[in-house]
Design brief:
The chain is an all-alpha fold and 255 residues long. 76% of the residues lie in helices and 2% in strands.
Length: 255
Amino acid sequence: MSRLYRTLIKQSFEETLAYRGTTILTIIFGVLFYVIAILTGSVYFSFAKDIFGWDFMDYLNLVTTANVMTYLYEFLFVQSQEALTGQILEGTLDYSLIRPVNTYWFHALYRVDFPSLIPLIITVGIEWMIIVRIRLSFSQILLYILIVMLGTLFIFCLNQIAVTATFWIDGLSALAGLPEYLMDASTRPARIYPKIIQVLFLWILPSLTVTNIPVILRYRMPFGAVIWLAVVDVCLLIASKFEWKRGLEHYVSAN
């Protein structure tokens, strides 16, 4: 399996080199969106030292962490999920279904997105400077890394569920964009939203938990929120795998 994955990564790298112009534009826009978010926050905090108890360092931590999770997701999974949608609609899954591999993970890890690696490295570097600045302990850093991994898995599962729905319904471009819109809306302090929104996106579909608990980590160890996020991730992963198995029963080959 590791040998197969190395081959798939090599193919991804060769495709990246073949489309250099697209790669450069992807990197530029990826970094640009992050810079715009930072500049927007600097405007907000130019009028007040804190907003709902958050200072600019908290905001910078939130936005940077959210981008780290997003770029990590994009690097590992986005190319595979985009390819999967087309393969389902065109009926070209046959070659993977007859191979002695776990088809769910094969298509989840089918490609990596190398252009997303540059913004990922940049945001990880900035986040490390933030961690040094706010002086997190070693245990807090370990918990932060776990939160990032859980957050990335959360984003993957939401998108996987949306993409796999293509087995039943075509033209789900709007649904496929919902996880992205949800995570974009979650790059804000949870306290700015009405209570009902906070409950919904902190505890039921915890996108705000994903982005906000790394900031809370600066002040206390939010073990309860981390455990709940892990439980939700496991449930979403099980649901996406169940959806995949049922979807294969609806699959119609083009051959």
